[in-house]
Every structure is written in structure tokens, then in C-alpha cells.
Amino acid sequence: MSDAAETIHPLPGLLTSSRGYKPFRYPWAYDVWKRQQQVDWMPEEVPLGEDCKDWANTITDAERNLLTQIFRFFTQGDIEVNDNYMEHYARVFKPVEVKMMLSAFSNMETVHIAAYALLLETVGMPDSEFSAFMEYESMAAKHNYIQEFGTGTNEDIARSIAMFGGFTEGLQLFASFAMLMNFPRFNKMKGMG
């Protein structure tokens, strides 16, 4: 055997670019990308006519206030999650199939942003609602705190993943989504659920 054949080169990791499209080092990431493409949808595909009627006639003022706060948060929260994919993860994780997966996740965040914005617009809320989230001191502080997470070191990357995956995307958004999903159980706001 030649010396070149005997040399063992360690496989590059998540922080190393691919030499070409294939072979994939993380085939599961490609599978996730493909599945995400198969479940693609656009906000206009969701029927909101009944939600508009519910907004105007069925839900209480307290429910309307709760929904308003959640939609404000959702729109801004998904902007921050998308920014994390674009500004942090896409710059750090290098294999082609992982970037494909991350870009699919990022794209779905843009769909979520547009979907909640469409609902706000459809029920007649003004554009000022999109910045109202940041007028609350605690929400502005949360936004500023999120901006402190980076990807300068492996430890920073791990903290960022834990914070965005566990707290922002996990706890905050899914807890809010659970509240939203309760409305259709009572035959209200069924399009958003």
C-alpha cells in the first residue's frame, strides 16, 4: 500500500465545510430537510374567515387581549429564532446537508412570521402592533438578553443552542402555542389552530 492509502484522516465535524455535495456526513440532516420541504405551506392557505368572525363576535375582550399579546410575541419571537438560524447557526455549521436543514428551519420561521402577521392584519390590527411587543420593558429586556448569545466558542455554541432550542423555541413559543390551541377546543379561532 502507498503511504497515502495508509494515512488516516479524521472525518471533519459540524464546523468543517463539505468538500462536495456528497457523501453526506449527517444523512439525517438531509432527511430532515427533505421532510420539511414536503410539509411546506403558505399563510394564505389557512382559512381565516371564521377567525375574523370569532374575533369580532365570539371571543371575549379578555380572550382578545390574550390573543393580541400572544400574536405580538409570536411574530417577534419567530423573527428572533429566524435571526438565530441565519446570523449564528448558518455561519457556524458547515456541512452542506446541515446547512440545508438549517435553511429549511429558517424558512419555516419566515412562514410563521408571515402567518401570524396575516392573522393580525386580517382582523384589522394596525402595523403599530408589530413593534408593540418591544414597548414592554420585560419583553425588551428579554430581546436584549437573547442578543447576548453568540457562537464564538464551542461553549458559546452549546449555550446558544440550549437557549434558543430549549427556551425560545421550546418553552416560550410552544407554551404560547398551547394556549392558542386551547381556543379551537372551544370552537373559537379554529383557523389559527
TrEMBL record:
Q: Which Pfam families match?
A: Ribonuc_red_sm
Coiled coil feature spans: none
| InterPro entries in the cross-refs | Ferritin-like_SF, RNR-like, RNR_small, RNR_small_fam
Quote the EC number.
1.17.4.1
Annotated GO MF terms: ribonucleoside-diphosphate reductase activity, thioredoxin disulfide as acceptor
Q: What is an annotated GO biological process for this record, any one?
A: deoxyribonucleotide biosynthetic process
Q: Which UniProt keywords apply?
A: Oxidoreductase
Q: Which family does it belong to?
A: Belongs to the ribonucleoside diphosphate reductase small chain family.
Which protein, by its recorded name, is this? Ribonucleotide reductase of class Ia (Aerobic), beta subunit
Which organism was this protein described from?
hydrothermal vent metagenome
